[in-house]
Amino acid sequence: MKFGPKSTVVAVLTAAALALTACGGGGGGGNNGAAATTLTLGSVNDMKTFDPTDAHIGHTMPFYQAVYDSLIRRAPGGELEPMLATEWTYNEDHTVLTLKLRTDVTFSDGTKFDATAAKANLDRFKEAKGQDAYQAASLKSVDVIDPATITITLNAPDPAFTYYLTQALGFVASPKAIGTEGIKTDPDGSGPYVYDKASSVKGSQYVFTKREGYWDKDLQKFDKITIKYLVDLTARTNALVSGQVDAALLDPKSGKQAEGSGMVAHKSQVDWHGILLFDRDGAITPALGDVKVRQAINYAFDRKTILEQQYLNEGTVTEQVFGPESGAYVPELDNTYPYDPAKAKALLAEAGYPDGFTLKIPTVAAFDGVNAVYKQQLADVGIKLETETIPPANLVSDMAAGKYSAATFQLYQGEPWVAINQMVSTSALYNPFKSETPDLTALIQAVQNGGDKSADEAKKVNEYLTKNAWFLPLFRLNQMYFSNKKIDVQPQLQQAVPSIYNYAPAK
Asked: Whole-angstrom Cα distance, residue 419 to residue 415?
């Protein structure tokens, strides 16, 4: 099976949950009609470091896309296209992937990109076990065939592996820099831009300038890109409306203001929103080890009213973690947990918690408002929800480290194998306690080896997760991404935030 520029994949990003915005003096020309030469993006997430092993699927990807090329690139419509790899071919049983590589690429330190560099990065990513380590879970070994060819051997078929090569796993840094302390603050990639450290301030703004001699000038749409860390929604909204911001991911309420100011709206239901119930064996919170307790939590929430009051009905209520475009969606599952506080109380009593219990979750600014609502909903059935404020930059890593038994979050609803390996499998980032059962393991294996029947097998995984209340899905929210008229933005399929390649000066 050979893949080239027009290859397609059913793939997703989520990500999760927080917003990337575009802001700042971006636009460059604006009122006099000149084409924009600069773009300023804002993010409610600060990046961890510039080390590619710290890259995380979702809203921090533009930090890395600016300075690092990936082996494969994902086009706005979801197609997989060549980047550092010009073509790729699987063997018959999909356990060996051969990549042909470009021969005209150098890193910012002058080092030439070749097969040895590609191997070094893949090996390092697997060894480092970063935030998105699950992407390398199936990677067994990488072999250099010649300077322009590598083979990647998998320990089992991985339907999402080429998709992962468009994400954190696929970022390639100079072999001289990988694994060093320096790469954390000074990225050394082959990407379309170089990092301007002198103009940047950690935790505030990150400036990138167009790289001279870059191999694909079509991806260099601006002379300068700035990414600002802006966690405050009101500040982002005001910056967009005042013309300082080129684009921003807002919420339904702030989106009304943006629409009234003539901004262009791009809406899509990328994520499901709810509470991740990590501690299914009761290691931190014993009550969560009982399926009746997790089911009680699902019955405790008035999804329809919360969506109307908190999100102005910008979304669709749901009780499952796979969306309609995923292939694993089962319509009947959205009738599993109707709002029923009495049923919730009865289940808690049956589980031995007639007086409820205490559940502690982390909170960040983006979720403070809804967590206050969730606290009241759970209190109505006897569960005390405690929130602990943490820095937004720590949210994903703290969840992945198993510091909390549950957390409010948003995750994408994409191709089943990608989603399973992000939130369900024992190597998944959002399964920090490595929850598993023999029945679920068998269902997951059927998806992996299902071939043309994988989607049908994934529906069985969906049914298991829903009926055993592994999560508390509440809604599929509309992502409210707005842009001004100085730039053109191509939305990215199944992503809340466009890739950095998707922005261009308005024509």
From this structure: 6
Q: What is the CATH number of domain 2-234+484-505?
A: 3.40.190.10
Q: Which stretches of 178-315 are DSSP H helices?
A: 233-242, 252-260, 291-299, 303-311
Enumerate the CATH 3.10.105.10 domain ranges in the chain, comma separated: 270-478
Q: Distance (Å, rounded) from C-alpha 506 to C-alpha 486?
A: 5
- DSSP of 139-171: EEEEEEEETTEEEEEESS--TTHHHHTTSGGGB
Q: What is the pLDDT of residue 19?
A: 35
**CB neighbour class for 386 (10 Å; exposed up to 12, middle 13-18, buried from 19):** exposed
CA–CA gap between residue 417 and residue 439 (Å, rounded): 17
- pLDDT score recorded for residue 67: 98
331: burial class by Cβ within 10 Å (0-12, 13-18, 19+)? exposed
270-478 fold: Dipeptide-binding Protein; domain 3 (3.10.105)
What is the distance between the terminal CA atoms of the chain, rounded to a whole angstrom?
A: 39
The per-residue pLDDT for 33 is 59
Asked whether the CA dihedral 490, 81, 167, 1 is positive or negative, the reply is positive
Nearest one of 442, 441, 423 to 433, comparing CA atoms: 423
Low-confidence ranges of the chain (pLDDT < 70): 1-33, 452
For CATH 3.40.190.10, the residue range(s) in the chain are 2-234+484-505
Residue 313 structure tokens: 């009905």
Instruction: Write the secondary structure of 364-419 as one string of H (helix), E (strand) and C (coil).
Output: CHHHHHHHHHHHHHHHCCCCEEEEEECCHHHHHHHHHCCCCCEEEEEEECCCHHHH
